[in-house]
Amino acid sequence: MTTSAAEQTLIEALEGIVGARHVLVSLPDKLAYARDCWPRGIILVRGGRLMEHHPLCVAQPADEAEVAAVVRAVRAAGLPIIPYGAGSGVCGGTLPDRGGVVVDVKRLNSIEKIDVDAFLMRVGAGAIGQVVQTELERRGLTLGHFPSSLYCSTVGGYLAGRSAGQYSSRFGKIEDMVQSLRVVTGIGDTIDTAPGLGADRWGGGLDLTQLMVGSEGTLGVITSGVLRLNLAPEVRLYRGFKCSSMESGVKLMRKIMQAGLRPAVMRLYDEFDTLIAGSLKGQRRGAPSEVEPGMPARLMSGLWDSAVKVLPGDVARAASAAPDIADRVRRAGMGLLTRAIGSPLLLNQMTEALPGGCLLVMGFEGHKGAAQAEYDAAMALARASCVDLGSGPGEHWLKNRFNVSYKQSAMFDAGAFTDTMEVSTTWANLMRLYYNVKRAVADDAFIMAHLSHAYAEGCSIYFTFAGFGADTDETLARYTRLWQVAQQAVIDSGASVAHHHGVGVSKAANTGHDHQGGRPLFDALKAAFDPDGIMNPGKVWADDPEVAP
């Protein structure tokens, strides 16, 4: 990994722009920025394969002017530029898989202005979601955007990937919250997408804001955005229901959304996800303790509880009382679980024999009178077809909704993998999509799902997979095959392959399905904003759509 004279010259130029301490060139730094949370990358790391790709260096500009100077310097050197927020993406959207310079925007983290009267905020792309929310709550406001990665993700990442928070049914996705953006293009120019501030010169009635939102750094580096705000809620009303089947739960969700009601949260868990939660045995215990995806921790918790019940009394008591014994038992259980996941068809067939019953969690927030009225109307619809479980499940979900982002390591430590796939379609097509994907992946991974992000027209399905291979090569092969057959099942079902995680590398080969005829438009945008093709190449639209990642 020797550095050429031209590369060293570029590094020195970048040090002159952002300061030497903010140009990272050490191997540990390069490795840290060489991946996001895409499970394929985690599989490689767990297998000791750290050098698949890495950047020349990482630049950390302090403001928009420095971002523009960095882009111009890297462009002159003819190298790729990879914008980077907090690295919480799960689709390979920030991989420096062609080398180049990673531009870390976390220093652009200021909340520049909060206009309480206009309900608007200008915020830097590097601001962490929870920090922004805390500042808004101090003023009685909220953005209404609550991804499960809120503690470890940036506003720029939300905008780049068209993120959806848990409250999207009420507030919409991030593209519904943004008024305008400031972006440094691949040329090094800075544009403001607000009407009258430079966006008009592009003509043709183009909405540059919406073209930049979701572009994942392929057109430029988002430096800040103006976002619309909402009042913080006066009241929160949450509840859980038992639906007799997925189908009955879907019908209820559709009725609620098409009645004009807007729950902050409405989530329907399939039978296995519900069983692991232990929510439908007459007690009002609560929803799954993790939210998205949460399956490894919930699965192990359920298996552990079951195991303790059948262990000999003295062993069970010892395991419960002694942490070291419990840890050894849990590790052994995880080893057995990963082997079982290695034969997923059997596990999937077992789940099909589970007794019916699906948990539905609903929550309404906002002005006390309005939220109460919507809550009462939704409760009347729900009680007509489902069993009321009380407030416990909803309140439990609310308390634990951000836990999952930190609880997936156990599966990877044991040699298995877990991943999620968020897809969407119309209400009429929803169950067909659900069963088609389950059948398609049954041989390759254990699968479960929940429904969330509901709208009047349709809903998203959030699939969670778990798989296992005997070694890294087998695990990678199974993981790759899983994604190929799963996405093909989505396409064959006439649904969308992406809803809110972005595209990155993992879905880039199928962007043409969701945006048929869109490639010429993307190419035209690249020609205008990134004529040299240096901005995050290979993301969103694959160079060769026939080649899977």
Please, could you describe this protein's structure?
With 549 residues, the chain is α+β, with helices and mostly antiparallel strands. It folds into three domains: 5-106, Uridine Diphospho-n-acetylenolpyruvylglucosamine Reductase, domain 2, CATH 3.30.43.10; 111-231, Uridine Diphospho-n-acetylenolpyruvylglucosamine Reductase, domain 3 (2-Layer Sandwich); 235-492, FAD-linked oxidase, cap domain/gating helix (Vanillyl-alcohol Oxidase, Chain A, domain 3). It is 40% helix and 19% strand. It has 21 helices and 18 strands. The protein has helices spanning 5-18, 27-32, 39-46, 64-77, 129-137, 155-161, 168-171, 208-212, 246-258, 271-277, 295-310, 313-321, 323-341, 344-352, 368-383, 392-400, 409-413, 430-441, 472-492, 511-514, 519-529, and strands spanning 23-24, 57-59, 81-84, 101-104, 111-115, 120-124, 141-142, 178-185, 190-192, 220-228, 230-231, 235-243, 265-269, 358-366, 387-390, 416-426, 446-454, 458-468. The strands form four sheets. Strands 15-12-14-13-17-18-16 form a seven-stranded antiparallel sheet, sandwiched between helices. A five-stranded antiparallel sheet has the order 5-6-10-8-9. Strand 8 (178-185) and strand 9 form a beta hairpin. Helix 1 (5-18) runs antiparallel to helix 4 (64-77) and helix 12 (313-321) crosses helix 13 (323-341). It is globular. The relative contact order is 0.13.
